[in-house]
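Board notes, transcribed. Complex of a protein with biotin.
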Amino acid sequence: MAVVFSGAIFLASSMSNSSVEVPPLELLQLLGDGKNHSGQELASLLNVSRTAIWKQLAKLEALGLELLSQSGKGYCLVGGLELLDKDIISRFLHKTASAAISELTLLTLTDSTNSYLMRQEHADGISVCFAEFQTAGRGRRGRQWVSPFASNIYLSLRLSISRGLGAVEGLSLAFGVAVVRALDELGVDHLKLKWPNDVLWSGKKLGGILIEVVGDPSGVCHLVVGLGLNLKSEKSMVQSIDQPWVSLDAILPVPPSRNHVAACLLNHIVPLLSNYEGNGFAGYQQEWEALNAHSNQLVDLYMGSVQATGLMRGVSSSGALLLETENGIEVFHGGEISLRARV
Ligand code: BTN
């Protein structure tokens, strides 16, 4: 496995135009303990002036972070932060995952990890990219994915498919199962999956999956599978996410380390992706059904201007949604369909 670590300085080509700047990582590491630090202390530790520190700290708000400044106490980064670290992630990785990863890239700043991997040259095996911050994180159906700095997981994986998209039907559902398995290992209970690809806890969104394709969808192509997983509730998220959501820090009494979460996700996701073209969805169907958030519930499906209503009767062996309407069981395949439960 080749490991690439890109600090901010190497990142010009990993993102489209953006004026967002990241303060020096040394400063973020000092503030990462979430405790108070005086301007004087930070200035002398980094061997710069207090004004230089103040200018760097002013950049934090644009990164979606909350800095408290109290006279007499100094500066405190609310909740602290833990930067991703390739050595720690690699240490937690199982051999099978590690062997299947051709490249593990950690970006400080990028437009979107999905876009980053879609721009890369073809590589054998699975390419993995995490970012600390996304200036243009993308969700399904053209939505923005709010991505405050070093707070959550922004992960994308790229792999080649030789037999066209038909051979990987149901992948986003199986991917959801792998994410639930990883979170289960981290002690998170009561998770559910919303067709086709939301990870829910108590009916609120904990994570989302976005799959994109490069190349010929009917033959040799490359899939980029992106996962956004909320670990920490930042003020910037509270202000801008317009649907019920939750983060791991609200679920677990002691939230796990980001690096541990990152490795645990890879340990479950990478083997799934390596074997999916051969195995398909059938082996995940039962587990997905057990996690189905809307089993036998009355739901509305939205497909552009078209809408269908019926009882959610689970999924087919290829991951298509089975909806019982007045016409009988109707089958809906993924794409730009969204599902809402009737309240
Ligand atoms: C959804 O709308 O539920 C899907 C969200 C997917 C977000 C992730 S974050 C990492 C990757 N990069 C992106 O720009 N989007 C995905």
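The first helix runs from residue 25 to 31. The pocket of biotin is lined by residues 112-114, 134, 137-140, 143, 145, 154-156, 198, 208-210, 226-228 (CB under 6 Å).
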